Amino acid sequence: MGIGCFSCLNSRKVPKLNPEKERGDQPPSPLSVSSRAPGSSSGTERLGKRTNVKSKRERPGLGAQGDSYTFTYQELATATGNFRPDCFLGEGGFGSVYKGRLERTGQVVAVKKLNTSGLQGNREFLVEVLMLRLLHHPNLVNLIGYCADRDQRLLVYEFMPLGSLEDHLHDLPPDKEPLAWSTRMKIAAGAARGLEYLHDKANPPVIYRDLKSSNILLEEGFHPKLSDFGLAKLGPVGDKSHVSTRVMGTYGYCAPEYAMTGKLTVKSDVYSFGVVLLELITGRKAIDGQLPHGEQNLVKWARPYLNDRRKLVKLADPRLQGCFPMSVFCRALGVASMCIKEEAAARPPIGEVAAALSFLASHKAYDPNKEAKAKGNERGGGRILGNELGEGSGPRLDLEGRPEKGDSPGDTTRVLNKDLQRERAVAEAKIWGENVREKRKQGGQESSDGSNG
């Protein structure tokens, strides 16, 4: 297929904030995720209990010893043609990735061969094996197995045929169609659900710490999956509000409070997600050195437009050519605006973000002809023009950046939640009405039968 299938498959290297080993972070063992008091369950056990860990025999890709998680180095060398150049998919921060086919099962896989020269690569290997063995969700990439044969460290993942989100957003060749608006919302909603699982379902919570467009992989149908968990951290538990750690991640996606203080929370991930959502809406990179100085940082460039409702349309990816419903576009910008708030406490929980985006993604694919007919005129062939910006029910901001009453980016999640609740109530009312009519019908039949008797 020839398409990079992993975050590290991209030959374009993105600068890491601190690629070296974290101070005070020892390479963790899968059996020592958190300290364990006598009689209490470990962090690993608590995580496993709430994330429905599958037994080894249920996992694909059996290794030579019958352990579904382990492979020998020779097995993976055979799968990749001895890591030959035509199987090479890309280079990442900690190793190279190759496409292969498992000899025993015939399954096509991605094999990540980690650099063993530094401690950070070994630490990433241990963290990723731990996380992906315990965490299972439709929006997380599947770890099929691993190899720890002598000094070799390799990870084996399911192959993602459509590559990464970055491959479909940036530096597109002239003959490649840009992602449709509905597809972008589908990807955003799926990525948010994966992050919601890490934050709200895992126990203790998992902070992803390296969310970016190159780490969102796509399978057939543009179904998104989060990948590359080498920088993930277990979140704070008990009365702790944050985890203190050396700043790691990718420039342009890192939350400002984490970059300045090293204090990591789940809201740090929410900020990174907001940057990815802006990428989906604008088609721009988080950091683009090819643009003029004032436009290189996506968040800094976008903020003034987010504070002026008349300029919101300037944030739309020009490759979309205006083919999107304006109300959905404005609400998506409202969600992004909340996620990239400077103050971590002002950002919404990822669960609310996921609910809002799932609602937006549920809108039918945009049909410009139908939209124009519904409005009673052509309006540029059904495309959204600049003078239509004030229409719809999206977020509205005045010129000074203050939200208009009852319709601001800060209210968007609450508005969408009300919409969801209203739709559910309507559906429940319909079911209730049908049940009542059915009971009355049955009661009428029984009364008729009794009178005939």
TrEMBL record:
Residues 15-66, 370-453 are annotated as: Disordered. Its main location: membrane. Belongs to the protein kinase superfamily. Ser/Thr protein kinase family. PROSITE patterns: PROTEIN_KINASE_ATP, PROTEIN_KINASE_DOM, PROTEIN_KINASE_ST. Keywords: ATP-binding, Cell membrane, Kinase, Lipoprotein, Membrane, Nucleotide-binding, Serine/threonine-protein kinase, Transferase. Residues 370-381, 397-408, 416-427 have a biased composition (Basic and acidic residues). It is a lipid-anchor. It is found in: Cell membrane. It comes from the Eukaryota. GO terms for biological process: pollen tube guidance. This is Protein kinase domain-containing protein. ATP binds at K113. Residues 31-43 have a biased composition (Low complexity). Pfam families: PK_Tyr_Ser-Thr. Residues 444-453 have a biased composition (Polar residues).
